[in-house]
């Protein structure tokens, strides 16, 4: 009786062992199917697929960044291209403004003054010297007044067109500095020469630097 029970227990254990083995085998096959299915459906897991340029993540090839040498050369090239050109310095100007009809700035005088306004010297902070002149007719005092009136008329025209009054200096010369003869060789009046002498000389230039006064040399005391 005991032998029969023992035999039945052994058979039961064998049956349970076989069932457990079959269950374990089924689970292993299911896991393999799952892993195989996941590998086939996931394209990122395919080792034969090449990564797309610019993508990040495992297996992606990074885009090379410019080296410091390349960046520096580009900057130097831009700086060399955008370098400002050096402008030439302004030149002083001296012009003659004809004023044969008195202290009136007529059309001929205005044409000269318009060119003066557009000159490079006018853009500088240089003084503007206006010298008024007359012909030799009349007395000295009357000619001085007439020459000053001519220069002041030109100064007023410049100020009206935006020139700073502090830059302008007016000098009355009268008949002292003619640029043409006032009389012909026979002593008669030279009307053309007189018309040329009735004028205003305009000069724009840097101010003259005063000459430094010489320093006295130190006197030597004779040795005892």
Topology:
Blueprint lengths: L1 H40 L26 H14 L11 E6 L8 H11 L2 H4 L4 E6 L6 H21 L7 E7 L16 H7 L1 E6 L20
Parallel strand pairs: 2-3
Antiparallel strand pairs: 1-4, 2-4
Task: Characterise the protein shown here.
The protein has 224 residues and is of the alpha+beta class. The protein has a domain at 97-204: 2-Layer Sandwich (60s Ribosomal Protein L30, Chain: A), CATH 3.30.1330.60. It has six helices and four strands, in the order H-H-E-H-H-E-H-E-H-E. It has a four-stranded mixed β-sheet with strand order 1-4-2-3. Strand 2 (128-133), helix 5 and strand 3 form a beta-alpha-beta unit. It is elongated and about 155 Å long. It starts with a helix and ends in a 20-residue tail after the last strand. The model is unreliable at 1-6, 34-45 and 51-55 (pLDDT under 50).
* Biggest beta sheet attributes: 4 strands, mixed
Question: Count the strands?
Answer: 4
How would you state the average pLDDT, rounded?
Answer: 76
Oligomer: single chain
CATH class of the domain at 97-204: Alpha Beta
Shape: elongated
| Structural class by sheet pairing and helices | alpha+beta
Strand order of the largest sheet: 1-4-2-3
CATH architecture of the domain at 97-204: 2-Layer Sandwich
Jot down its keywords.
6 helices, 4-stranded mixed beta sheet, about 220 residues, 60s Ribosomal Protein L30, Chain: A, about 10% strand
């Amino acid at each position: 009786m005991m032998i029969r029970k023992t035999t039945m227990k052994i058979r039961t254990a064998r049956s349970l062992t076989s069932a457990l083995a079959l269950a374990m085998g089924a689970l292993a096959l299911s896991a393999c199917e799952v892993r195989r299915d996941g590998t086939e459906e996931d394209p990122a897991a395919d080792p034969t697929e090449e990564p797309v340029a610019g993508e990040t993540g495992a297996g992606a090839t990074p885009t090379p960044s410019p080296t410091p040498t390349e960046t520096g050369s580009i900057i130097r090239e831009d700086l060399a291209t955008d370098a400002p050109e050096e402008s030439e310095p302004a030149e002083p100007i001296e012009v003659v403004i004809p004023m044969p009809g008195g202290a009136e700035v007529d059309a001929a005088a205005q044409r000269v003054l318009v060119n003066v306004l557009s000159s490079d010297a006018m853009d500088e902070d240089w003084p503007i010297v206006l010298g008024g002149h007359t012909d030799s007719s009349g007395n000295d005092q009357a000619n001085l007044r007439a020459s000053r009136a001519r220069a002041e008329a030109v100064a007023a025209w410049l100020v009206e067109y935006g020139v700073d009054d502090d830059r302008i200096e007016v000098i009355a010369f009268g008949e002292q500095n003619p640029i043409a003869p006032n009389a012909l060789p026979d002593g008669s009046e030279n009307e053309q020469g007189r018309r040329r002498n009735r004028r205003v000389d305009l000069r724009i230039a840097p101010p003259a630097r005063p000459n430094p006064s010489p320093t006295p040399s130190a006197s030597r005391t004779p040795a005892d």
